[in-house]
Structure formats: C-alpha cells, structure tokens
Design goal:
Blueprint: H1 3-17, H2 21-35, H3 43-50, E1 54-58, H4 64-77, E2 82-87, H5 90-96, E3 103-106, H6 112-121, E4 124-129, H7 134-140, E5 148-152, E6 160-161, H8 168-178, E7 183-187, H9 203-224, E8 227-230
Parallel strand pairs: 1-2, 1-7, 2-3, 3-4, 4-5, 5-6, 7-8
Helix pairs in contact: 8-9
Length: 231
C-alpha cells in the first residue's frame, strides 16, 4: 500500500488514539538522520526477499508456541519457498526455537538486544518510527550492524518508507502484501487479549491496538485478495 491509500487510515488512528502527528513526523526525521551512512537496503531488495513466497508472520499471542511447532513441521516438508517475518519482541522467542527470521518488523520494543543479534546474523530489520519511540531510536539504531530499512506511519521521507500498517503485526502483513508474497500465514495472532510474550503497557490501549490490527489486516486482505490463514 502506498501512502496516498494509507493516509485515510492514519488520520483515523490519529483521531482515535489522540496521537500527535508532529511527533510522528519528528521521529521519522530522527530515524532518517540516524540511518544515514548505515547499511540500509532499498524497497527493491525487500521485494527480492518476499516476492512470490509464502510469508509466515509471527505475532505475540499465546498460540505462538503451538504455531511454531506446526511451522517447524511445515518447513521439514520443504514444499515451497517461504519467508519468515517476526513482529518485534517475538524475535526473542523465535531465536530460542532456533528460527532466525528473514525480516524483523520493529518499533524497538521487547528485548532489542536479540533483534540486534539477529540482524548481525542476517535478519533484515525494518525499523519503525512513531511519536513514542524517539528515545529508543536514539539509543538503539546505531547498534545495528546488519541490513536495515526505515519506516513511518506518517508521510514518507527520502530514506523512510511507508508501506502501510499501524502495529508491528499488521505492518508485517502490509509489508508482505506490498512486496508480492503469494500467501500469508499468521502464527500466534490473537486479537482478543494481550499475549504473554507481549511487553505489557496499558492493557486497554494494547487491546485497542489489537482491534485496529485486526481491522487493518482484514481490510488489506479484502482489498487485495491475498490468501490469509492462521496457525
């Protein structure tokens, strides 16, 4: 999804959560500056990683661990090309299960040290800027040594992109669809409650974000017709 199509959802989100658009834009500018001179890759490079593959996207719901077992069985069959995409802090649990995600979509929450390690081992990290994570952008971005992409939920900049999406989980879906995944399987997604693997901020706000994630995922799949399933 390009920004022109995404903006109507973004404006609804700003209104619903009373977010400050200027803070989002300032965080985007900060991330843009931090990424200069770093090992960034282009949208075309992301397309090469995702295009035509079955995307497995890992979220932080309580069904994650059961889903990982099913995923491992699927990979042992080797039936098709896959790409693995991790939503933020879920990366820690994938690493513990010897799964190195191809792509990590993060707003620098969770155990960020594990995301840094995965990046060094080959995971592409898609770092997201928003009004609440400027301090983590300052602290962590320079510590990543591997391949990086910068994103925003606001208007994109020259080196900061917007492929659509709001929470880490639904941004993974928007990313996979944007770059031509042939099918998407969501592992460990539960919109009804805050998962045990989640970094628990305000439960009420988190649940509201999960409802938005559900709405956005359903919308993008309906609009594009991409095949979606849950584990």
């Amino acid at each position: 999804m390009n920004y022109d199509a995404w903006e109507k959802y973004y404006l609804e989100i700003l209104s619903d959560f009373k977010f400050d658009r200027i803070m989002d834009e300032q965080a985007s500018q900060l991330l843009s500056e931090k990424l200069r001179g770093m090992n960034t890759i282009s949208p075309g490079d992301l397309e090469k990683i995702i295009m035509g593959k079955h995307a497995f996207i890992f979220g932080g719901g309580d069904l994650l661990f059961q889903g990982i077992e099913t995923f491992m069985e699927f990979t042992r069959r080797g039936a098709e090309e896959i790409v693995t995409i991790s939503a933020d802090g879920v990366t820690t649990h994938l690493i513990k299960n010897n799964i190195l995600p191809d792509i990590i979509v993060t707003d620098l929450d969770g155990k960020i040290e594990d995301q840094v390690t995965a990046n060094e081992k080959g995971s592409v990290v898609v770092v997201h800027a928003h009004g609440d994570n400027a301090s983590n952008i300052k602290k962590w971005v320079s510590r990543f040594n591997g391949k990086l992409v910068g994103t925003t939920q606001a208007r994109p900049l020259a080196n900061i992109f917007n492929f659509g999406g709001f929470t880490d989980g639904d941004r993974c879906v928007f990313l996979a669809e944007h770059f031509g995944a042939k099918k998407i399987t969501l592992v460990g997604f539960d919109y009804s409650r805050v998962g045990k693997t989640s970094n628990k901020k305000s439960t009420e706000t988190k649940l509201k974000k999960l409802m938005w994630a559900k709405k956005l995922i359903e919308t993008i799949c309906k609009e594009t017709g991409i095949e979606l399933e849950y584990l």
